[in-house]
Amino acid sequence: MAGATLKDIAREANVSIASASRAINGLDNVADDVKQRVLEIAKRLRYVPHGGARSLVMSRTNTIGVLLPDIYGEFFAEIIRGIDVAARARGLHLLVSGSHGNPDEALSIMRAMGGRVDGLLVMSPFVESHDLASALPLNLPVVTIASQIGAGRGGISVDNFGGGVTAARHLCEQGCRRPALISGPSRNFEAEERRRGFLSVFDGEPPPVFEGDFTEESGYSGAKSFLTLAERPDGIFAANDMMAVGCLLALREAGVSVPEDIAVVGFDDIPIARFTSPPLTTLRVGVFDLGRRGLEMLVATLEGEDETTTQGIIVAPELVRRESSRHK
Predict the structure, then answer these.
(1) Are 135 and 110 in contact (CB under 8 A)?
(2) Domain-located, residue 55
(3) Which end of the chain, N or C, is surrounded by fewer C-beta atoms within 10 Å?
């Protein structure tokens, strides 16, 4: 029988539609013999439960909400890919949206997702993001990724300060005496921590800083700006790989050799970092794994696992040495 309905199952099993639904959804308030009879008939008739109806019975939507600052570029593509792989392995669906760095837009999105998702993964690293916690529904499980919300039982954060320190020390070890920084936007907590860590290594006159916005264009502009200085840098730390890609292009167009004239270091280790010219030295944070682990942490919360399994995780960036910084 093709296209069998729950009503068909109930009629053939000689039970009510409600009893057939409870049996198919594995609920306890149905007799064992009824459950067995209903399941056998459902199998024989090749019955496929309706996802929406099933979610109402089980009080679950089998959908996870994902809120990111943006959905453009390799970094966010890798985050989403990690979340998606982990979600598909568990039969879950994703509802993805970007806030474009606007806390008001993020608030509107989270309210819109209420009742449509079982839990929420949020990445909102902007300094105003802590205000979002008070707007979240109390019964909506939330796991944060590199955010300042702190609204969930668990979260994943990156040691951005330590990463900035590592980048600065690496340039110094490569013999760079005039380092410079292309930072992320000042409203971004992660960017500020990378800036703070990088500058903490140097005594006296601080290195020159160009404030970018994590895009290739701002990395390109930052490198162009440094090249106009009376003493141009001999090492540049771009606070994410996309800005480093733009930086490399600007240096190549200006006839500057990397790393012989200027060493370049990025942050994130997105897939393209291995294929730049020259290949980019960077701080690896495991972008794919940030998404995957975030989803797994949220699922653990949804399934009521012990709180020790959903405590926060701090990721320490790992220096990946490639040709762009071999300055000596």
Answers:
(1) yes
(2) no
(3) C
**Cα within 13 Å of Cα(28), Cβ side:** 0
Distance, in Å, from the CA atom of 3 to the CA atom of 8, rounded to the nearest integer, reads: 10
Both 231 and 264 in one domain: the answer is: yes
pLDDT tens over the chain, length 328 residues:
345 777 888 899 998 877 887 787 666 677 888 888 988 888 788 776 554 444 444 467 899 999 998 888 899 999 999 999 999 999 999 999 998 877 778 778 877 887 789 999 988 877 665 666 666 665 678 888 887 665 445 689 999 999 999 999 999 999 999 999 999 999 899 999 999 999 999 998 999 999 999 999 999 999 999 999 999 999 999 999 999 999 999 999 999 999 999 999 999 999 999 999 999 999 999 999 999 999 999 988 887 764 544 557 899 999 999 999 986 5
For residues 270 and 298, state if they share a domain: no
Same domain, residue pair 115 and 89: yes
Domain residues for 32? 1-43
Please state whether the predicted TM-score (pTM) of the whole model is above 0.90. Answer: no
Residues 67 and 101 occupy one common structural domain: yes
Q: What is the rounded distance in angstroms from the CA atom of residue 66 to the CA atom of residue 261? A: 42
Look at residue 32 and tell me if it is in a domain: yes
Alpha-carbon torsion 26, 30, 35, 39, what sign? negative
CB 250 within 8 A of CB 262: no
**Residue 266 and residue 294 in one domain:** no
User: β-strands 154-158, 179-183: how paired?
Assistant: unpaired
**In a shared domain, residues 268 and 293:** no
Same domain, 102 and 188: no
Q: At 209, which amino acid appears? A: V
Residue 251 placed within a domain: yes
Q: Which amino acid, 46?
A: R
Same domain flag for 189 and 212: yes
